[in-house]
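Hi,

I'm pasting everything inline rather than attaching a file, because the server keeps stripping attachments. The sequence lines come first, and each chain or strand is labelled.
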Amino acid sequence: MAPRTNGIGVQVENTRICVVMVGLPARGKSFIAQKAQRYLAWLSIPAATFNVGNYRRTDAPQPPADFFDTNNQEGERKRRAAAEAAVADMLRWFKKGGVVGILDATNSTKERRKWVLDIMTQNNIEVIFVESKCDDENMIMMNIRDVKTTSPDYQGQDPETAALDFRNRIRNYEKVYKSLNEDGDEEDLTFLKIMNVGKQVIINRIRDYLQSRIVYYLMNLHIRPRSVWLSRHGESMLNLEGRIGGDAELSHRGEEYARKLPELVLESVGSDRPLTVWTSTLKRTIATARHLPKHYNQLQWKALDELDAGVCDGMTYQEIADLHPDDFQARDEDKYNYRYRGGESYRDVVIRLEPIIMELERSEDILIISHQAVIRCIYAYFMQKTQEESPWVPVPLHTLIKLTPRAYGTEVQTYKANIQAVSTWRGKGSTAKHEDPSPEKSLFQTH
Amino acid sequence: MAPRTNGIGVQVENTRICVVMVGLPARGKSFIAQKAQRYLAWLSIPAATFNVGNYRRTDAPQPPADFFDTNNQEGERKRRAAAEAAVADMLRWFKKGGVVGILDATNSTKERRKWVLDIMTQNNIEVIFVESKCDDENMIMMNIRDVKTTSPDYQGQDPETAALDFRNRIRNYEKVYKSLNEDGDEEDLTFLKIMNVGKQVIINRIRDYLQSRIVYYLMNLHIRPRSVWLSRHGESMLNLEGRIGGDAELSHRGEEYARKLPELVLESVGSDRPLTVWTSTLKRTIATARHLPKHYNQLQWKALDELDAGVCDGMTYQEIADLHPDDFQARDEDKYNYRYRGGESYRDVVIRLEPIIMELERSEDILIISHQAVIRCIYAYFMQKTQEESPWVPVPLHTLIKLTPRAYGTEVQTYKANIQAVSTWRGKGSTAKHEDPSPEKSLFQTH
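And the predicted assembly:
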């Protein structure tokens, strides 16, 4: 069968890419690597990060700064061995079906980059170098603070000593560091150079679609602090009847939630932060956003409309089980991939949400008022939920969720409106109209 | 009402952008400007190009090379006046609702760029500079050849004399030309610098979503010669009955077309050119591609599926007129914007085709086997059809269409399989099962 695509990851079948990070320590390389991996995995593109530091630590758990001096032969040998082990693991992973492998290390010399390029080229793997270059002292300081508190290299050490040592380590790297194509002799490489977190970006010899997607994603990242708020619409008339899809009005209690929402938002966002509100194009999300402060910009996205249930639109689960028993079962068996006849699968929804994610990455504070399946998919992006988990995540009605991206993960807070609503969560195999999710599946934990 | 978006042109309501082209003559600036305008217009973003040369020609129709020498005061004055007239017109156009205005001129000095930036900033219009820099002699020669044969500046002149004069004109520009941020003092500008048609790209201080869309589109352009072939699936069982949508098998005559297609393709493409085939995920396009040579790569896109007719899926036009008379009429009145209940509008289809267009721009030769509405939308992109025209373009069954992008427009050729098929074209107000388009609407002309 011909490979399928929905617009992302075209011809992934034939493409394997090694993303080689480049840059001095404390330039956000691991942050970029982790974001890229999460984005690709969310799009069903097998991606993995190979952090050379982790390999080095098995041999040298907490080395002093001069371990990273190129004149330190013992240090050089161990660091070289760590890089070789990481690359060997990555090649094994590619053989097992990996598509985008990310080599997270400084790769700060031309020799090291040529070494990686040669190995990958011999294995028919494309190489794209991604350099994070930063001369903004504030940004570097922020990263150093982060490293000294989170890196296993400094665990248990005095923070001030750690910071000093880390600065010395950076100095040792600076001695040999060459920025990509600094001497003009790396112009044949495929690379992306990100200066000061996106202020300027240089893109060189990008060759295919998947490379261009990765580059476009990375050039849209920023690290200014912000949050994303998610809410489902208020309870709808069809929710009351346990029917899916449709374009119903809010129930009484749904209206109550819409009136209460400004208060919840104010409590969570604060009164002086500007907020942009995105809704779907369906009545129930627009009505839910109706009472929010007038100075918030509002925008309707068709991409935020609920998963299209096709021929099952407007039915109860019982009716689906009665009228389309095979479909009902097929969906339970592989809910992520099951596409309603004439409608959509969770996989389809993820693909149409891709521009939303891209725009979220570019934006500051955003409140999204949308639907159960759509919010599950957005939640899965931020929380790295697998395809098996994401279609079953409970997203209760009348609840505001706040997601705050941090250096290595996303923080969750929830705000309950304390307005009763039916549950629209459904367990595997169940045809119940309203069923409560088992408590261990609840969202109400900080991840 | 909150502004709506489908993922492109977010917050267009609040954004106005002046794209200022920068570069020596014969660097493809007008090509880039024209592509960007066509792309944006296709996405319903009001865009227009203001070519300073056209303004200058009213005053100085066929000036010699030394008109462009900065020491020529008369020339300087007239060129300045032309720029002022173009900018004044652009500002008037912005006041009437323009969103992206493109200033097509060399803008090759820092002073000129600062002048444009100041005027636009005073009018709350964002400025993005787009420079095409090229030192590939072959590419420049190609452009010079192009200019001397197509530019009104040299109409009726001996081609060799024209080429010589044009080279001297370029030399006069080179004397004062400064590449963007060449001296490091334009680093606060928002700009995109394209070197040698995309080999390297520098992106500086891109600020919002629309800017980033324009940049992403422009960085994906190439100028290698290629064609795009379009075909509808062979006649389907539902076509025979005059029913829309569905997922039917091919009719006997449709099968015949599928068997004939390889021959048509071979005739048009040639036997030694590699071709990639894209189909939708529906049976009738996959079956139509079945007999194509095995060495062609094939890819299925959900984005190429037929316009979703929602509640009207599988109906005849007569049934739609009987069961949903209001919808039937509303669709005829504004076919581009009418969205079937639970389904899609042409506008929706254009938005989901955007990644297809992006990938087409990146690609070499592609054959697309898809559906009537989808092919109308792709055709509209290449042929600059308006929203009023595109939903009515006749795209007959059993016909292969070849589109070849040229410097200023797209060439069309059609190949008929000479296998009978019903017509699925429908005139405004008609509920006929099968109706032939009026001859003047036919595709069979080279545009």
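Chain A has two domains: 17-220, 228-416.

If the labels don't parse on your end, tell me and I'll reformat.
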